[in-house]
Amino acid sequence: MYAWIWRHLPGNAWVKALTSLVLVLGIVYLLFQYVFPWAEPLLPFNDVTVDNGMAVAR
Amino acid sequence: MAERHDRRRGRIAATVGVIGELLITAGVLTALFVVYSLWWTNVLADREAKRQGDQVRRHWAASGPGALDTKDGIGFLHVPAMHNGEVLVKPGTGTDVLNEGVAGYYRKPVKSAMPWDKQGNVTLAAHRDGHGAKFHNIHKIGTGDPVVFETRDVWYVYKVFKELKETSRFDVSVLDPVPKESGKTAPGRYLTLTTCTPMYTSDYRYVVWAELVRTEKVDAKRTPPKELR
């Protein structure tokens, strides 16, 4: 999978390495900015209030 | 014959390789999520809490005596035992509020009292981990420790009298005006801190109760009461 991506990136090894780095940083940005904030409330790690089993008390 | 055998082995090896890469990817994603929850959300929340806290203090400094503006926050909570400075207190306990790195007072399921009410229970919630983790060190609070609620004009000094180290997340009676589980039977001026426990999960709730011992008028220099010095 990653070997396939590497083969299909244009340029020589340095250009490929730089492109890969940019791609990785872009993916991390997307994860931190959009994916994780969306996923977090769905996971049972961070409910701090007592409630009667309804949605989070406001 | 041999060629076909080789080709099949090549395909199996490729499949195993892809599965391996996917597993590594899943591991990296999980690690990134941990970094996000335990570090990045704190960075964001602390920044936001600082901004809002400064705003409240500026507002206090600017406005003379008059109506209290509860929209920005009603005051700051100081718990020396938690070693985390001051925590802004805002209305509501929804994730949108608590994720700003503040403590929220309950509006549901049991409405919180205000520190200046003649009697009642001031009930607060904040995150144990991530999003500022304002109640991270709640387990370091012991009986007798001071909890100070700072409003514009008054320091409310409470003393902790009971910790409930684990209770059900449905145990809303801890928020009652007279919380029976704390051992109290008569109305008084109580303060309740709630957060999740054990750390890093939210299977149960951790509760700390305190009782008002005295109030102190805020002076011109905002000299903190002796519990905070």
TrEMBL record, chain A:
The chain crosses the membrane at residues 12-36. It comes from the Bacteria. Keywords: Membrane, Transmembrane, Transmembrane helix. This is Uncharacterized protein. It comes from Streptomyces orinoci (Streptoverticillium orinoci).
From TrEMBL, chain B:
InterPro entries: Sortase, Sortase_Class_E, Sortase_dom-sf, Sortase_E. It comes from the Bacteria. SUPFAM superfamilies: Sortase. The keyword Membrane applies. The keyword Chaperone does not apply. Keywords: Hydrolase, Membrane, Transmembrane, Transmembrane helix. The chain crosses the membrane at residues 12-40. NCBIfam families: class_E_sortase, sortase_fam. This is Class E sortase.
